[in-house]
Design goal:
29% helix, 194 residues, 7-stranded mixed beta sheet, alpha+beta, 3-stranded antiparallel beta sheet, BirA Bifunctional Protein, domain 2, single chain
Length: 194
């Protein structure tokens, strides 16, 4: 059993600053989106939370897609911080029903090499926050970052409904802190960078 970490708001703020210094434009997004937009990345409606005729976003990716679809997000690289709401079938220290996430997004641009670039950039930031090894792993959709076997970020280039984009996790909390604190405490196998 893992210990649960608290959301580290300072890390989230540092992540936003880091990505802005790397050329991402900080934007504020809606925390809800229409069902058809949310279904692009979450086809199981049972995992969504209904809210005022729409659904709470499972990730800022959905809010970014909605903004791009509505014509309010021109081509560019963006970063945002939003809550993520997900009806997880099993809740655990690493799978919560709500958490905070800094999301990276390139509108109108779906390229695998850009997803890889986002993953490397996120790994660079994460390494400023821990001595643990941040490992890059290839997946069927793109790339993941892991700390001691716990996924702490996912990166992919996508196309759907005539739109294209690349997205990825800038930092998810408290998952990142949970992975780090458990590895530091020896509760999961650890490898120190160095």
């Amino acid at each position: 059993m893992l210990i649960s970490a608290f959301t580290n708001w300072g890390r989230l703020a540092r992540a936003l600053e880091f990505y802005q210094r790397r050329g991402f434009l900080l934007v504020e997004l809606d925390w809800s989106a229409p069902k058809e937009i949310c279904a692009i990345t979450c086809p199981d409606e049972g995992r969504m939370y209904a809210f005022d005729g729409e659904y709470l976003v499972g990730s800022a990716e959905q809010a970014f897609i909605d903004a791009q679809n509505g014509g309010t997000l021109p081509p560019g690289r963006y970063v945002a911080l939003t809550p993520c709401f997900r009806r997880e079938p099993v809740v655990s220290e690493t799978h919560l029903r709500h958490f905070m996430k800094v999301e990276l997004f390139a509108s109108h641009d779906a390229r695998d090499e850009l997803a890889y670039e986002f993953a490397l950039l996120a790994a660079e930031f994460m390494r400023t926050e821990t001595a643990q090894v941040v490992e890059l792993v290839g997946t069927s959709e793109g790339y993941d970052l892991e700390i001691a076997g716990i996924e702490v970020g996912s990166y992919a280039a996508r196309t759907a409904n005539g739109m294209s984009w690349t997205c990825g996790t800038g930092l998810a909390e408290p998952r990142f802190s949970t992975a780090v604190e458990n590895a530091d405490a020896g509760l999961i196998p650890i490898r120190k960078a160095g």
